[in-house]
Amino acid sequence: MYSNEVKDMDKKVVTVKEVAGYLNLHIMTIYKLVREGKIPAFKVGGRWRFKKKLLDEWIDKETNKNNKKMEKLKNVCNLLGVKREAI
Q1: DSSP letters of 13-45?
Q2: SS3 state at 50
Q3: R_g over Cα of the chain
Q4: pLDDT tens string 36-80
Q5: Which long-range contacts (CB under 8 A, 24 or more apart) does 9-17 make?
Q6: CA 17 to CA 65: how far, in whole Å?
């Protein structure tokens, strides 16, 4: 989608377009995440910017959160004797 932007992710501060490329999401999805306060961002001159370090920390946190949810689901399925594939 935004392949050129992925190369630029070694910068410390990145744009919405670069984040969209990095996460392989549509630009409007990035704006939605920002509006909902789900992704760390700040404004400079009326435009959204993202600290690459905070973005990577957010990705790690979200990944860990999802892994914990999957572990809980696995435990519940084991207790109920349900195969996870059936869900």
Answers
A1: EEEHHHHHHHHT--HHHHHHHHHTT-S--EEET
A2: strand
A3: 17
A4: 999 999 999 999 999 999 999 999 998 888 788 788 888 888 888
A5: 9/52, 10/52, 11/52, 12/51, 12/52, 12/53, 13/49, 13/50, 13/51, 13/52, 14/49, 14/50, 14/52, 14/55, 15/47, 15/48, 15/49, 15/50, 16/47, 16/48, 16/50
A6: 25
**Cβ-proximal residues to 74 (8 Å cutoff; 6+ apart), any chain:** 84
pTM of the model: 0.69
Domains annotated on the chain, with CATH: 3-86 (1.10.10)
Task: Indicate the helix (H) or strand (E) that contains 80.
Answer: helix 52-80
Q: Which amino acid is at 62?
A: E
